[in-house]
């Protein structure tokens, strides 16, 4: 699967143009996705040195992207007829999703297990309800 991943607000907290603190388990999850043979594309509004800083920050933490702000590593801006930064990917991981950014553990399960975010939330709710079951009602003859 080809997955586009935003940087600011998704991998790190928003501190643009600085690099914020890592969001818990972001780089660990990205490394697991790479190990699972997914192609990750860093998709960011950053350009120039600010973009290179983000790439270097990720590389220092063991996250090597398949491509950065393009569909494939060899793509050249001058030969791109449409000059669009809209990528052709299977999935986007971005803090601007409707509903916000799930936790990175949930993101991994969505991708690895093919579950929807709704399914994960329902499972979590069901588990919490089972852990806190109401006391069973006594039978009418035990009143």
Summarize the structure in short.
The chain is α/β, with parallel strands linked by helices and 143 residues long. The chain is 34% helix and 9% strand.
Q: Give the terminus-to-terminus CA distance.
A: 60 Å
Biggest sheet: strands side by side, in what order?
3-2-1-4
The structure class reads alpha/beta
Tell me the overall shape: elongated
Which percent bin holds the helix content? Answer: 25-40%
3D structure, described in words:
This protein has 143 residues and is α/β, with parallel strands linked by helices. It has four helices and four strands; from the N terminus they run βαβαββαα. A four-stranded parallel beta sheet has the order 3-2-1-4, covered by helices on one side. The radius of gyration is 20 Å and the shape is elongated.
List the helices and strands and how they pair.
Layout: E1 2-5, H1 26-35, E2 39-42, H2 48-60, E3 67-68, E4 91-93, H3 104-113, H4 117-131
Parallel strand pairs: 1-2, 1-4, 2-3
Helix pairs in contact: 1-3
What key phrases describe this protein's structure?
alpha/beta; 143 residues; 4 helices
């Amino acid at each position: 699967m080809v997955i586009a991943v935003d940087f600011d607000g998704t991998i790190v907290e928003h501190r643009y143009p600085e690099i914020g603190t890592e969001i818990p388990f972001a780089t660990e999850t990205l490394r697991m996705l790479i190990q699972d043979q997914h192609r990750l594309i860093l998709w960011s509004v950053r350009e120039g040195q600010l973009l290179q800083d983000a790439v270097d920050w990720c590389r220092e933490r063991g996250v090597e992207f398949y491509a950065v702000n393009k569909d494939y590593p060899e793509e050249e801006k001058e030969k791109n007829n449409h000059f669009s930064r809209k990528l052709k990917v299977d999935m986007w991981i971005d803090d601007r999703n409707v509903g916000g950014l799930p936790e990175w553990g949930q993101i991994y399960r969505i991708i690895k297990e093919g579950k929807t975010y709704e399914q994960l939330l329902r499972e979590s709710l069901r588990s919490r309800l089972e852990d806190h079951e109401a006391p069973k009602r006594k039978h009418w003859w035990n009143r």
